[in-house]
Amino acid sequence: MPIFYECQRCTACCRWPGDVRVSDEEIRRLADFVSLTEGEFIQRFTRLTRDRRGLSLVEKTNGECQFLESGNCSVQSVKPQQCRDFPNLWRFPGFEKTCHAKPHPVDAERYVALVTQATGRPEEYVRLHPSAR
Ligand code: SF4
Ligand code: SF4
């Protein structure tokens, strides 16, 4: 039975170091949201990903995401897809030791509906994604 993970907004995933990949479109949306040009946003808020194949949001010196403010994502409505997809469409072994998302075993149709809503992905993507079950 598929398991839907319901985020509890503990923000642990915003506090561990690592790449938060941003696409060109996401950069456009984020730049607009914080009233910067794309160039200014790239300069100020991104760095190369570890594999040097794209851009990631920069972290604060303590490893937190730059956009974590007072325990909340300050760019919630335009946050990158990578943030929206975790932990339903990607996760790593042992993630549940840090992530407090509540596991709900649900039937396949309910799973697709819930993950579609949580990630903003098209239903078809959720149905086809290999880590969706
Ligand atoms: S963009 Fe928002 S959701 Fe994504 S890591 Fe940063 S604070 Fe967290
Ligand atoms: S996905 Fe997990 S770690 Fe991230 S905010 Fe939700 S419950 Fe916390």
Architecture overview:
The protein has one domain (3-132). The chain has five helices and seven strands. It has helices spanning 24-33, 38-45, 81-85, 108-119, 123-128; strands at residues 3-6, 21-22, 46-48, 55-57, 68-69, 72-73, 102-105. β3 (46-48) and β4 form a beta hairpin.
Task: List descriptors.
133 residues, alpha+beta, two-stranded antiparallel ribbon, 5 helices, binds iron/sulfur cluster
Task: Compile the SSE list and pairings.
Layout: E1 3-6, E2 21-22, H1 24-33, H2 38-45, E3 46-48, E4 55-57, E5 68-69, E6 72-73, H3 81-85, E7 102-105, H4 108-119, H5 123-128
Antiparallel strand pairs: 1-7, 2-4, 3-4, 5-6
The structure holds iron/sulfur cluster (2 copies).
The site of one iron/sulfur cluster (SF4) has 10 residues, from loops.
